[in-house]
Automatic annotation (TrEMBL):
A GO BP annotation: nitrogen fixation
Entries under InterPro entries matching the protein: NifT, NifT/FixU_barrel-like_dom_sf
Protein name listed in UniProt: Putative nitrogen fixation protein NifT
Pfam family for this entry, one: NifT
Highest taxon in the source lineage: Bacteria
Gene of this entry: nifT
Signal peptide span: none
């Protein structure tokens, strides 16, 4: 699925999923192999490959939902 990464006014990383009309804050970031796993406030875990460190925002990336 395609998601948009952006930062809010407080500087927190946010994820917007257009198909679900869902916008959540990222509460945890971990690195697994070559992918970043982003844990959202609602409990979703998204795996995203090819992200720079630090993450440049705003950007649209392809993500895979893990749970």
């Amino acid at each position: 699925m395609k998601v948009m990464l952006h930062t809010d006014r407080a500087g927190k990383l946010m994820v917007y999923v257009a198909k679900k009309d869902l916008e959540e804050v990222v509460v945890k970031q971990t690195t697994v192999d070559d992918a970043q796993v982003l844990t959202l406030a609602n409990g979703w875990e998204l795996s995203v490959t090819g992200l720079d460190n630090p993450i440049k925002t705003p950007q649209t990336v392809k993500a895979k939902r893990l749970n």
